[in-house]
Amino acid sequence: MTDTTHKPLLNKLLTVAGIGLFSVSLAHADVTLKVDDNIKVTVLNGKQYNTSLFQPLQQTFVLQPGKHVITAKYDRLYDDLPGDNHDYLRSGNVTVTADLQDNQTYRLAMPGQPERYQEAQKYAKSPTLAVIKGSTVIAQTSGAVEEGGLFSGLSSLFGSNDAQVENQKAIAAVNGSSTTSIKAISPVETSSNSAKADTLDNFMQLWLQATPDEREKIRQWIQK
């Protein structure tokens, strides 16, 4: 008799406990960041991405809730130009900082991308990088930090990297000015082994994009 009397109460307690556990799991749900077309994420929270020429770009990132510093480039190939020509348009680095909430999905976008090649050439000089939730822009940055040209690209293969420098500067700014209860992200130490593994891929990409005159300069630079 006692078991029958207390069974409804026990079921209610189990139901409440289950709801509580479900709520806790939701409180710690991850954040999903989806990257639009023609965007190449180069550094995220101090860590390099998409460094290999032979691997597809990473278009989805699963992150922890909180502040994130994202550095990316406008990256688009026009392979249908007149005369069977093609051109690879790539902007300088653009960095945006966004506070991402748990259990939400965001888009990393470059609003206003033109389709016409001539307009895209102008756009690549000063793109806008934005983090969007639904139809709301959470954070955005306009303009790009230009890289130092061909030999800057060569230097990045052997230790220095403009994108990483810009990302680390933004991280330092976030950590220095954060007054909220949300913990700012910390710099990520890059692995020297993975950097060495990507050096050949990066060099091949640089070589393929170089003009004949630039390739001759590369040869002279290597022979020094």
TrEMBL record:
<comment type="similarity">
    <text>Belongs to the UPF0319 family.</text>
</comment>
<dbReference type="InterPro" id="IPR018635">
    <property type="entry name" value="UPF0319"/>
</dbReference>
<keyword id="KW-0732">Signal</keyword>
<protein>
    <recommendedName>
        <fullName>DUF2057 domain-containing protein</fullName>
    </recommendedName>
</protein>
<feature type="signal peptide">
    <location>
        <begin position="1"/>
        <end position="29"/>
    </location>
</feature>
<dbReference type="Pfam" id="PF09829">
    <property type="entry name" value="DUF2057"/>
</dbReference>
